[in-house]
Design a protein that fits this description.
heterotetramer, A: 317 residues, alpha/beta, TIM Barrel, four-stranded antiparallel β-sheet, B: 263 residues, Elongation Factor Tu (Ef-tu), domain 3, 2 domains, seven-stranded antiparallel β-sheet, seven-stranded mixed β-sheet, 5 helices, globular, binds flavin-adenine dinucleotide, binds flavin mononucleotide, binds FE2/S2 (inorganic) cluster
């Protein structure tokens, strides 16, 4: 290595480039806030500056306001938590009027998580959001029950997945991530259905369905009985599904589920994720974005890598 | 509305706080004093802090605790802890000199109690109400109630506050009046302009009923399981006549007539 | 209440009856050792006396010896562990010759977990075991890959489940539990298929498929890449599935997944389990059977209940 | 076979052991002395204990540690701990007077070394080999090796054992001979009747190669991640020419010619 190359390498090592292209959404680093725990950003915006975060996936938005589930909505579990918020949200119009203007002021990529009870509702929300400035992408949450098909989640069936993604694809030119539910036997089939229907990226995993029982009251602990399990407890499941999805599709993957350290984030990237999102981890540490970004930077420096590209899926090859 | 303060600027802080003292208050209870200058200078009665768990427990949610005393001059706050599960047990075992990360003050807090107000504390409900009692100078009455004498963990000396009348009650009569908080309240509510209450759910239900019947304004401080503590996750809601409200952000203090306690 | 009734009640309270009938297997209390972690009983037999345990479900037995997966086979995860033992076992004949005689000497119910790569293999193992004395029941582990059907586990498909259970049912009169895999979208359908094919009880859950990656080596941490997630981390998922299975079938349910306290065991019973099994929990505390049995006894005393019957599924009603 | 002892009766015990001393041995290392009378009276060199985690961490697997010293008369054992992750960190922070539950002695242990044997310890591999060195009276040589001087945590004084010759080596030459354990071993193996080794995988690979080439019998102590520690779960296997063997029960000591180290 001559002196010039050594210097160049040195330079790279000093400032590795963390930026990634997530299906057309350009991120300054691979760390996003997962949909839900972060709400519409305002509260965490008071708490920390967003300098180390690349973007926010805002809480699920539906056509009409949803009131959500009765309390208790959350409870802690070993190395995780259950939530049954029930996708409470103020509805599309209120989101656009009250929350989007604030989100536009942030120097962050804004991805809107879209929920619905029918293909039509998904499509309407996506269409309306596509007309608004300041939105960098959509994330289609297909864990919602398909009311017309007996209440099973769209995302548990490849055909229903294809239909809903296709319908939304027709309505929007925004980068479109499809967020899969882990409560399936074969995640690869679902990921492929989403890809074929036009998704620009796959997000996973949403929460695992779970419950706890209050043995004093002899009743389910959560108001809704069932809730979604998140946090470090589920990370091995999430990582396995990211790996399987990455084997199944060519579009990029946004990995999430239990990330609380830079090493966790790296594991997702090495399994095949282009970027990662954090939900529950922010509850343990509101400054987690900084921990992850710094940790990834240090890893790249230590390995003498200029960026994350070479690491994506490396454990699979 | 008087209660739900608008929060234009950020009014809470994260601090890494040394434990100054950790004193047992009888079996199952302790009182922890922490150096938390920013929080001490901002906190108002009825507000709470989220206490993050020590590093050896990286996968536990923070736990909410009411501020019991605040000394802004010395930058000190005190909390009362009832040991219920793993989180409170960990806090109870923290040695002086160790650190705890705190986020606060959170929540809306109580509105200022008018002269002659009655403060109803059930068990650990005394934590925020003692703070409220100390925050004003004029006359007010604190009803301090529990199932049995051992659960009245705050000693008499704690309430050596000028102008404060204090009445105790226990369900089993082992200390003070024999009866429930509701019994005691019914007997003395006549002249009161307002009631402020914190304690177990059944007590709050009774207080609400009494106050609505007598048309006395009442403010109830509620508890719910929390995750973020700042209003983002919508995990800690209670039903109110205006829909679900977040205990951590819209509360923990709610007007009795708004909150739906057994819905 | 007259004095006599009071005395009778007192008596009951002093010694509540923990026995249950698990699909024809009569257990002195509802606590079993789950298949796998306990091996064939010998090692834990050295470690603790078995007085508080009702029975052992021995490690999966296949027709021929299986050598299992390359190491590392296990790793810890937050509040859980991953294992990729790969069903290493000495094979049917060696089990009968070397392990069964020891198991017969124990004052315990012995349930043999049966594994296979084809319906034929399952049926053969079940048939041969049915001819042996000292076996109180079989547990059919249908999480194994169905080689003929592209390697998806039998237990992810209701039709395959029906076929294998039916085939085994034909070969044995022993009480037959069918152990389900949790890696499915709708556990109720699978449970019903097993019931219809003649199962006497349903066991669940087996481990959740998961993985971790070693970021230093940039390779999966386990020799087999994927492993099974067990322990407290998965308990909310297990409990939800027990609840759903209990809604779907009339035969009794053996619940497991992350049990480490008597309250955990009670939660499973209140969700609908007749009995419970413990795997990973024994690693944390080899004396766990005693903790569970004593805790259940105390709960019944406190509640003034004579037995567990009234608690079975009570949280669902 | 000499090595794999039959275990007719139960030879291990569970004990709740008070920590007598917990001494730092430089950054990242500590030495813990425990009162464990039953284990101390049974343990042989090369055996290990499973240490269960304190109650505040109910969902962690026990961790295996070699017995470093045993004093059966006083019912005391000593272990050396390198802080690698959460489990070892928790052990390192245990205060004297606190208790740890132990299960042991586990595993087969080393066979008795014939006179003139060479004991090769890489880093923490010194823990069982110092015990082995102490267990016999006649001449034997301990090669104590590590990457750098700071990792040779056992002080000279620890090896004041009659008849024991000790040679140190560091890869970077900061203490003793400059070079690897393999370099050192190659230089002194000529006369040795047997070699006993414990240390990092690459060192064991080298030791195996040298010994096979020179036709010197060698025994290697291996490590694997463990769950049960008693042989039930088949989680801790290593490949051998006789198939997979359990490190916790069939090992941790294996004849070099049997175990497959990079298969
Ligand atoms: C605004 C607010 C102020 C509070 N102030 C105090 C205080 O000053 N002193 C005090 O001792 N406690 C206070 N609590 C309750 C305290 O937060 C819980 O007791 C504590 O979080 C329990 O944690 P744990 O890990 O010990 O118990 P866990 O193992 O988590 O739970 C044990 C039991 O405690 C109850 N519990 C758990 N979380 C909560 C919660 N967030 N709110 C209410 N009950 C809960 C449940 O019944 C549960 O079964 C307050 C709660 C809130 C919401
Ligand atoms: C028979 C045996 C004897 C041992 N004797 C000693 C000893 O005397 N002194 C000592 O310091 N250590 C000893 N070890 C290693 C010790 O068990 C591990 O370092 C310890 O379990 C790590 O736990 P942790 O929670 O600190 O780290 P973890 O967070 O669990 O892991 C940190 C890293 O340590 C390694 N590791 C984890 N578990 C094991 C394991 N079971 N074996 C080997 N490496 C592991 C892995 O590389 C892992 O990435 C022994 C291991 C075995 C199997
Ligand atoms: C309180 C809470 C609310 C959530 N709300 C949503 C939501 O509105 N839409 C969605 O797609 N996922 C939602 N999720 C799932 C998360 O986005 C994420 O997929 C999951 O929690 C796993 O990541 P984690 O372990 O980092 O939390 C929610 C999760 C939590 C904990
Ligand atoms: C090391 C290990 C080995 C296992 N082997 C088997 C097996 O051979 N057959 C089987 O049906 N389940 C096997 N299991 C699954 C357990 O029986 C049980 O279903 C699962 O671990 C969940 O329970 P737990 O959380 O209490 O461990 C194994 C689990 C572990 C941890
Ligand atoms: S705890 Fe998150 S909104 Fe209250
Ligand atoms: S750790 Fe279970 S067999 Fe070795």
């Amino acid at each position: 290595m001559d002196e010039k190359t050594a210097n160049q390498r040195q330079e790279k090592i000093i400032a590795p480039d963390l930026s990634v292209d997530l299906g057309g959404i350009i991120l300054k680093n691979p760390v996003l806030a997962a949909s839900g725990p972060f709400g519409y950003g305002r509260e965490y915006g008071e708490l920390t500056n967003f300098k180390d975060l690349a973007g926010i996936i805002v809480k699920g938005v539906s056509l009409e306001p949803w009131s959500g589930n009765p309390p208790p909505r959350i409870t802690e579990t070993p190395a995780g938590m259950l939530n049954a918020v029930g996708l409470q949200n103020p509805g599309l119009e209120s989101f656009i009027k009250d929350d989007l203007p604030y989100l536009r002021t942030l120097d962050l990529r804004i991805i809107v998580n879209v929920v619905g009870c029918s293909i039509d509702e998904y499509a309407k929300v996506a269409c309306r959001l596509s007309g608004e400035a300041g939105i960098d992408g959509l994330e289609l949450n297909i864990s919602c029950p398909n009311i017309k098909a007996g209440g099973m989640a769209f995302g548990t069936d490849p055909a229903a997945t294809h239909l809903v993604v296709e319908a939304v694809r027709r309505e929007t030119k925004l980068p479109l991530l499809v967020k899969l539910t882990p409560n399936v036997a074969d995640i690869g089939i679902i990921a492929r259905a989403a890809e074929e229907a036009g998704a620009d990226g796959i997000s996973l995993i949403n929460t695992l369905s779970g419950m706890l029982i209050d043995t004093v009251k002899k009743r389910p602990l959560l108001g809704n009985a069932f809730g979604g399990l998140s946090g470090p407890a589920i990370m091995p499941v999430a990582l396995r599904m990211v790996w399987q999805a990455a084997e199944a599709v060519r579009i990029p993957i946004l990995g999430m589920g239990g990330i609380t350290t830079a090493d966790d984030a790296l594991q997702f990237i090495m399994a095949g994720a282009r970027a990662v999102a954090v939900g529950t981890g922010f509850f343990y540490n509101p400054e987690l974005a900084k921990v992850l970004k710094t940790g990834l930077e240090q890893y790249l420096k230590k390995e003498g890598l200029a960026g994350l590209k070479q690491l994506e899926g490396i454990a699979r090859f | 509305m008087l209660l739900l303060k608008e929060q234009p600027g950020v009014k809470y802080r994260q601090e890494s706080c040394p434990v100054l003292e950790n004193r047992s208050m009888g079996p199952g209870f302790c009182r922890i004093t922490l150096a938390a200058p920013a929080i001490a200078s901002l906190v108002e009665p009825g507000q709470f802090v989220q206490i993050f768990m020590p590093q050896e427990h990286p996968h536990m949610l923070p736990r909410p605790f009411s501020v019991h005393k605040a000394d802004p001059e010395n930058g000190i706050i005190t909390i009362l802890v009832e040991i219920k599960g793993q989180g409170s047990r960990l806090l109870a075992s923290r040695e002086p000199g160790s650190f705890l990360k705190l986020l606060g003050p959170l929540g809306n807090g109580f509105p200022p109690p008018p002269p002659g107000s009655i403060l109803v504390a059930g068990g650990m409900g005394v934590a925020p109400l003692a703070f409220l009692a100390e925050s004003v100078k004029y006359s007010r009455t604190l009803l301090y109630c529990a199932r049995t004498a051992d659960l009245l963990i705050c000693p008499e000396a704690d309430f050596n506050i000028p102008g404060l009348q204090i009445m105790r009650a226990t369900d089993d009569g082992t200390a003070g009046f024999r009866g429930t908080a509701a019994d005691l309240l019914s007997g003395c509510i006549a002249e009161a302009p307002a009631v402020f209450a914190c304690g177990p759910r059944p007590m709050l239900v009774a207080v609400k009923e009494i106050c609505l019947k007598r048309r006395v304004r009442a403010w109830l401080s509620l508890e719910e399981r929390m995750a973020c503590g700042v209003g983002a996750c919508v995990g800690c809601v209670v039903p109110t006549i205006k829909g679900y409200k977040r205990v951590c952000r819209d509360g923990p203090v709610f007007p009795a007539e708004e909150v739906i306690l057994d819905g």
